Amino acid sequence: MRRRISTVAVTVAMAGGVLFTALPAQAVTTTGQQAMAARGGAITVNINQLRQQSADLKAKANRLEREGEYAAAKRCRAEAAVIDRRIKAYLDAENNMS
């Protein structure tokens, strides 16, 4: 089970285009980052940065909607929803690993 969760987390990170760095678990000390064990190391993801990206996309969607660009606003909201689901997946994987 542990191996499958790690594989899912890595696959989500790679598919989403998230920049991540493989570091040893001892090196993860930064606030706002979550670490997930994966085959002898850890993957660090800055959750706060992802939340900020989601908020920026939602604000852009609101601005586009006010300007009458409904299709573009819908695309921005969809991108924000993808980021929100990715954050949830990272946090769920982290909680299942401990």
3D structure, described in words:
- This protein has 98 residues and is of the alpha+beta class.
- The chain has helices spanning 2-15, 47-66, 70-97, and strands at 21-23, 33-38, 41-46.
- The longest helix has 28 residues, at 70-97.
- A three-stranded antiparallel β-sheet has the order 1-3-2.
- Helix 1 runs antiparallel to helix 3 (70-97) and helix 2 (47-66) packs antiparallel against helix 3.
- The chain is built from three helices and three strands.
- 63% of the residues lie in helices and 15% in strands.
- The model is unreliable at 18-31 (pLDDT under 50).
Please outline what is shown here.
This protein is of the alpha+beta class and 98 residues long. It is built from three helices and three strands, in the order αβββαα. The chain has a three-stranded antiparallel β-sheet.
Looking at this protein, list some descriptive labels.
single chain; 98 residues; alpha+beta; 3-stranded antiparallel beta sheet; 3 strands; elongated
The proportion of residues in beta strands is 15-25%
* N- to C-terminal distance: 13 Å
Rounded Rg: 16 Å
Poorly predicted runs are 18-31
Largest sheet: 3 strands, antiparallel
Q: Tell me, what's the shape?
A: elongated
Query: What structural class is derived from the secondary structure elements?
Result: alpha+beta
Outline the fold blueprint.
Layout: H1 2-15, E1 21-23, E2 33-38, E3 41-46, H2 47-66, H3 70-97
Antiparallel strand pairs: 1-3, 2-3
